[in-house]
User: What shape does this take?
Amino acid sequence: MTVIDLPIIDFGAYLDPSSTAEQRQAIDHAIDKACRQFGVFHLINHGIPQELCNKVNARARQFFDLSFEEKRKHRVGSDIRGYWCPTDTSNAHNIPCEGIAFYPPVNYCSNGLSPDIDPASPEARLPTTPDVLGGQNSWPSDEFRAQIEEYLEHILPLKDRLFSSIAASLGLGDASQKRMHKTAPHVSFNGYKALTKAQMEEGEHNLAAHIDPGCIAILTQDSDSVSLQIQDKDGKWCGVKPIPGSFIINIGGALSRLTGGQYVDVLHRVIHRSEKPRISIVVFINPLFDITIEPFTECAEKADPAKIVLKTYGEFYLNQDSE
Ligand SMILES: O=C(O)CCC(=O)C(=O)O
Ligand SMILES: [Fe+2]
Assistant: This one.
């Protein structure tokens, strides 16, 4: 497996009040170039304390170490919230990937209502009302929830800085920036076990090839195995070597559409071979469901017609198979 040399972007100047405009512009330029060329890059000196990432990782490991019966209690009848794994048997030894994910109520801040809820009814805006994504989040414990909230308090300002950088490179005016910033965080904890020899021979993957649907993913992972793979421009699969303490930032379908296809939405998958189970923690930054993902005005001229989608993110997300 070829290991790809992705850009390593040092974000330090963005956090240093004494940095110069030129230093920040150099970062903007490097991020913009990486988004156009690869749709993915490593981010170092991002300001998120390593200790916090370690605590979140430990929390995830503690959850995945629970019995299958315990984990299963957190299924909520949604593809994107609660516990998920590819099988529902109690013989859970060979599960190559499992996860628990959290998505804010989409009806609370946008129009993603479940079709059987009357939009005019008082309960339509309650965070507990079922929405198009199915059942609501299931938190393993109050501590678990508090840990994720603490993590988001750090990750969301980082997202704001990354978006500012991207907006500067794309020359976005106020209206486009406002649209770009209307997002919700989808948090996903992924646990991977080594594929067995038989699974390898059958060509199984821990996580099948996909493009993330939203704007960006901010991913931290165990740093000792090359398990994440991306497809390069020639269609070749390449391993991504983790850099301790870095985040991997990758571009999803919505941001690619918003830029008229100028930014690459990277196809990726996971094949984990190492004996030690692997954990990745991803915060996906997704547009709110009622935000349209047609290209920013400033990107319209350069837009690739094949990448123009005149839909809201909700419509795009829920009809991905037909894209
Ligand atoms: O675990 C990884 O490295 C990738 C996870 C991923 O692609 C996803 O959750 O969408
Ligand atoms: Fe992904």
